[in-house]
């Protein structure tokens, strides 16, 4: 099946922070999709002259809207859809008072499949086409999410959380159960269609040394799986963690001890880091994941993107629903901009949109399949309308450059600015705004 998607097309091929030659933009652009894969991308007139566009191909014209690679969310909690906007707590109380009780509901038969559809609908409505998700401790929560994502041919990286202490019994496994369930999920889902498994020890507070040992064993047995966890989000968390692992040099050293660091490892938050930890993250290639709306909402602290970048740490950016407050990667980039402002750092709009697409794909090591419009990539696209609201339309009347237009989307945009989302070539929104 072939289709042509027309619009104003933006595609990144390098990081705007590294080079000025970082993107291509076609005011009358087109993306040719063949069986869910991008087979051509460029100026519509050029593609026509080259004979690249088959006669009679089905065509959707989104002009004047902006087409780019779909957004990638590198840290989000599937069972926290109904935790967002829980009042008045910082991390550890927020987990105990709101989050663990909510995640306990995912033990109930039939709950996770319903919530998985709602979760993926929300992601697609906000222009997100791939997510890296924490599920609950219950194996069936991960089964439900993978089943729903596979049915819509949507690339997911996900795992059931391993947690065996410091939480209510309804959300605890044991080292052996956590290992066995994770292994069974890997066998069933890792590499099935577009699904990939992330070994997911929640964080050191909720995993005993025995559990981290088995998580490390899983990682050794499945080196192409991702690993995701949390690191240095909040001062009280760090103090509690270090009291539980008194032999560790610092927080990162705990994960290091159990063989959990490397280029496939995603360390959510990574805020209050020691210089040694930053150097070790760079040395091992471990990724830091910036979660701006969550860090502000939970009062966790300010992520030092510039410092980590100077040290050579590869970084993702993510919503962290439900500590985060918006599913929108646009809103996430807006809050990221403000957090960096507070540290006298500048997030340029081109760098911001690169980060939410190709940058996050690089953080996942998946840039050969997602994050750009290069032929051979999966046809995951977002179509953006920078005039989606009256306020945005008025602001757009003063816009003269692509960078300015992107910045209006970044600062004022949300799901209303998502005109359409394509997952493997399939339109996911019922109406095309
Ligand atoms: N640390 C351990 N679990 C969580 C979680 O669910 N959300 C956040 N923000 N931090 C965590
Ligand atoms: Zn998280």
Describe this structure in words.
GO terms for molecular function: guanine deaminase activity. α4 (139-151) packs parallel to α5. This protein has 15 helices and 16 strands. The strands form two sheets. Strands 5, 6, 7, 8, 9, 10, 11, 12 and 13 form a nine-stranded parallel sheet that branches. Strands 3-2-1-4-14-15-16 form a seven-stranded mixed sheet. The model has no long low-confidence stretch (mean pLDDT 98). α4 (139-151) links the parallel β6 and β7. It has two domains: 2-69 and 372-427, Roll (Urease, subunit C, domain 1); 71-347, Metal-dependent hydrolases (TIM Barrel, Alpha-Beta Barrel), CATH 3.20.20.140. With 433 residues, the chain is of the alpha/beta class. The two termini are 24 Å apart.
Reported by name, the CATH topology of the largest domain is TIM Barrel
Let me know the number of strands. 16
Strand percent estimate:
15-25%
**Total number of domains:** 2
- Are there runs of 5+ residues with pLDDT below 50, and where? none
Q: How would you sum up the major sheet?
A: 9 strands, parallel
Task: Give the proportion of residues in helices.
Answer: 25-40%
CATH second-level architecture of the largest domain: Alpha-Beta Barrel
Overall spatial form: globular
CATH homologous superfamily heading of the largest domain: Metal-dependent hydrolases
Q: What is the CATH class designation of the largest domain? A: Alpha Beta
Mean pLDDT: 98
Radius of gyration: 21 Å
- N-end to C-end Cα span: 24 Å
């Amino acid at each position: 099946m072939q289709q042509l998607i027309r619009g104003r097309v933006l595609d990144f091929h390098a990081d705007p922070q590294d080079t000025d030659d970082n993107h291509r933009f076609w005011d009358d652009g087109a993306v040719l999709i063949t069986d869910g894969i991008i087979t051509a991308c460029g100026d519509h007139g050029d593609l026509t002259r080259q004979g690249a566009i088959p006669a009679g191909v089905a065509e959707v014209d989104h002009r004047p809207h902006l087409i780019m690679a779909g957004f990638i969310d590198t840290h989000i909690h599937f069972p926290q859809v109904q935790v967002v906007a829980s009042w008045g707590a910082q991390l550890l109380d927020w987990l105990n008072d709101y989050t663990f009780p909510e995640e306990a509901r995912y033990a109930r038969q039939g709950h996770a499949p319903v919530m998985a559809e709602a979760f993926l609908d929300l992601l697609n409505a906000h222009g997100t086409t791939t997510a890296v998700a924490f599920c609950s401790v219950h194996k069936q929560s991960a089964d439900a999410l993978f089943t729903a994502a596979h049915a819509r041919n949507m690339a997911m990286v996900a795992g059931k959380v391993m947690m065996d202490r410091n939480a209510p019994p309804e959300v605890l496994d044991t080292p052996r159960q956590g290992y066995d369930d994770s292994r069974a999920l890997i066998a069933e889902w890792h590499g099935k269609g577009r699904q990939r498994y992330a070994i997911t020890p929640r964080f050191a507070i909720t995993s005993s040394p025995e559990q981290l040992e088995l998580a490390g064993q899983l990682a050794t047995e499945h080196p192409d799986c991702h690993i995701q966890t949390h690191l240095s989000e909040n001062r009280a968390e760090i103090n509690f963690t270090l009291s539980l692992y008194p032999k560790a040099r610092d927080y990162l050293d705990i994960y290091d001890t159990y063989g959990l660091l490397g280029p496939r490892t995603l360390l959510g938050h990574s805020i209050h880091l020691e210089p040694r930890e930053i150097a070790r993250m760079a040395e091992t290639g471990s990724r830091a994941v910036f979660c701006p709306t969550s860090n502000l909402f939970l009062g966790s602290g300010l992520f030092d993107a510039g410092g980590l970048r100077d040290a050579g740490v590869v970084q993702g950016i993510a919503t962290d629903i439900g500590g985060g407050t918006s599913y929108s990667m646009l809103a996430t980039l807006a809050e990221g901009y403000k957090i960096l402002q507070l540290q006298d750092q500048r997030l340029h709009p081109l760098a911001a949109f690169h980060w939410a697409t190709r940058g996050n794909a690089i953080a996942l090591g998946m840039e050969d399949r997602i994050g750009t419009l290069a032929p051979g990539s999966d046809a995951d696209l977002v179509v953006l309308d920078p005039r989606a609201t009256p306020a945005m339309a008025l602001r757009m009347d003063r816009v003269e450059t692509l960078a300015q237009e992107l910045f209006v989307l970044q600062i004022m945009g949300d799901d209303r600015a998502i005109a359409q989302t394509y997952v493997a070539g399939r339109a996911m929104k019922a109406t095309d705004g």
